[in-house]
Design goal:
CATH topology of the largest domain: Fumarase C, Chain A, domain 2
Strand order of the largest sheet: 1-2
InterPro entries: Aspartate_Ammonia-Lyase, Fumarase/histidase_N, Fumarase_C_C, Fumarate_lyase_CS, Fumarate_lyase_fam, Fumarate_lyase_N, L-Aspartase-like
Domain Fumarase C C-terminal: 414-464
CATH class of the largest domain: Mainly Alpha
GO cellular component, one term: cytosol
Domain Fumarate lyase N-terminal: 17-347
Radius of gyration: 32 Å
CATH architecture of the largest domain: Up-down Bundle
Number of helices: 19
Largest sheet: 2 strands, antiparallel
GO biological process, one term: aspartate metabolic process
Amino acid sequence: MTEDQTVTRTETDSLGSVEIPFEAYWGIHTARALENFPISRRPISVYSDLVDALVIVKQAAARANAELGVLDPEKARFIDEACKLVRAGAFHDQFVVGVIQGGAGTSTNMNANEVLANIALELMGEAKGRYDLLHPLDDVNRSQSTNDVYPTAVKLAVGFGLNDLIAEHELLRASFAKKGLEFNDVLKIGRTQLQDAVPMTLGQEFHGFATTLGEDNARMTETVPLLWEINLGATAIGTGITADPRYAERARKHLLELTGFEYVTAPDLIEATSDAGVFMTVSGILKRSAIKLSKICNDLRLLSSGPQAGFGEINLPARQAGSSIMPGKVNPVIPEVVNQIAFSVAGADLTVTMAAEGGQLQLNAFEPVIAHSLLQSIAWLTQGCLTLRVNCVDGITANVDRLDRLVSTSVGVVTALTPYIGYSASSALAKTALLTGRNIADLVVEADLMTRERVTKLLSPARLSGLETITSTIPVISTVVSTDAEAVLNPGEPDLD
């Protein structure tokens, strides 16, 4: 045999025989799937949580089958050991079928069965492909169907991923909260409809970001237990055909032991085998979290725009050159990538919705695209939260001098004086400030509307931002404005002579 010849083994199914690369741990069913579904160019191994979930289900099944006496204890032991190796990170590259596939996940289940069977055979000291000694379907898949294995594994995988996302999301929330404390005394002008509104602190703005993230974190946390209802033991359509009546409960207990999560068997296995409602719920929560995070990133991009001709209120960390033609330009690339993640998550939510609706009768054949959509959204959101925290939020600084200038000349400050000098005088004051660009406090004092001490107190950062509340009675407004004050507040057209 020459060096360029590939060593193969022959495997046979009801459709015929196929040559399998000898080094491959997958077999004929996987080989056919590779031919049939060259779609996504992404193997299921890109989602390590899904691989781990599949082998956990197989591990729980092997233990339950051994206890019930429907699987030889030695075979069960070798299958169990094979599962442990995969969970430790080995053989993930052997999970090669594409994430998008027809067959309701059958190819994924077959891939797992074949890989675990061949690992177990080698642990037994036998060659790969010796299925007369340990069979992918008769032994690894005993008491199971794709229709209960795959949905259960997807729920496990989504739950694992959600827990990781929740942890990273909480770190991001804490980072925004920390900035809220750091910027507690930094006064700025709030905006509504992109127009100047009333004063606030930069700390309040960042605290608001933290609060909205905290709300989404709570919603995600509440969703995780919904994934604990499983249909393992339902087999083909929910009737439990080919499985011992005691199997579902035994397998559930082993899942609990292997993961620590309180999985429960669905009370109606026929309904549970065809229902994809929980996946829509998870997808909706992911979309909510992504869109709200994207809105925050929009705000960060606006607040940091410039640095000379934009808002320029905060400075984002410079991460990379922003242009191949404009020297020195730096773009808000981290918020931008999170925006794009949110767009993808929103699109994935529609995909999940359509796939859930498309199921017929006793099975939803479209769970592969549901799994892919959810797992990708979770993975991207998790990494998005990480990079936003580490490469952006933690390094944000306030452009204090610019903020001070904007506040001192802002007509929004006048709103705080309205209860004391009246709406008419405040309107005139605002007009004068806009025409002249002068400091509001100076105009108030010059118009003899208040003393310097009084206006300074009323326009203090704490009072303007609401951090310090008014405890005394507001005096009755005087609507009489002196002639001198009128002259200050209404300077008229500038003298051109």
